[in-house]
Design brief:
Elements lengths: L1 H21 L5 E6 L3 E3 L2 E3 L2 E8 L5 E7 L2 E12 L8 E6 L5 E7 L5 E4 L4
Antiparallel strand pairs: 1-4, 2-3, 4-5, 5-6, 6-9, 7-8, 8-9
Length: 119
Amino acid sequence: MRSIKYLILSLAAVLALSLGAFAKDSNSAKFDLSERATVGSTTLQPGTYKAEWTGPKNALQVSIEKNGKTVATVPGKLKELPQASPYSSVTLKTLKNNSKQVDEIDFNNRTEALVLSGM
């Protein structure tokens, strides 16, 4: 009887610990960039990227990754949206030299947008 109790407790502990592996990482999301644009001092080519952020909502440290490698790190902040974004989108800002800069990233089904410029 005692061994069954320990077996059940062990299985419950393993299950509880493994649930973290399946949890959605709420501080990262993928986005597609359709044209060349800068993030900080880095020029990104069109493609699929992943944004990861840490810190308080108004003073984030944002890392942009491509193929698992960090390609840019910039400050950012989260902005509340009135409703969940129906799709992922990137808002670009045109600079004086006619280059584009990533201004905001809205993520599919999320109520927060990541703001990168104008800090």
